[in-house]
Amino acid sequence: MTSGCVVALDIGGTRIKAGIVGPGHEVLLDRTRDTGAAEGRTPWPRACSTW
Predict the structure, then answer these.
(1) 5 pLDDT exceeds 50?
(2) Residues paired with 32 in a beta bridge
(3) Which of 20, 27, 36, 44 is the most exposed place for a label (fewest CB within 10 A)?
(4) Are the C-beta atoms of 9 and 44 separated by less than 8 Å?
(5) How confident is the model at residue 39 (pLDDT cuts 50, 70, 90)?
(6) Considering just the CA atoms, what is the radius of gyration of the chain in Å?
(7) Which domain of life is it from (predicted)?
(8) In what order do the strands lie in the sheet with 4-11?
(9) Alpha carbon distance 51, 33 (integer Å)
(10) What does pTM read for this prediction?
């Protein structure tokens, strides 16, 4: 099982998701336009979660 943290931030109307895998050796960034509000999703920032 892999544990990590997923954080989403709002910068200039752009959603930036940073995925930290394992002991924090890998960081994945994915910048996409925010559609969460329109889709009724929970707004960021999101709390750190484990998967």
Answers:
(1) yes
(2) 15
(3) 27
(4) yes
(5) very low
(6) 12
(7) Bacteria
(8) 4-11, 14-21, 26-33
(9) 24
(10) 0.18
Cβ atoms of 10 and 44 within 8 Å: the answer is: yes
Statement: residue 11 has pLDDT above 50: yes
Count of beta carbons in the 10 Å neighbourhood of residue 17: 15
CB 13 within 8 A of CB 7: no
User: According to DSSP H, which parts of the chain are helical?
Assistant: 36-39
Residue labelled with tokens 């998701």: 17
pLDDT at 41: 46
Q: Is 51:9 a contact under the CB 8 Å cutoff?
A: no
**3-state DSSP call for residue 23?**
coil
- In this structure, the number of other CB atoms found within 10 A of the CB of residue 10 comes to 14
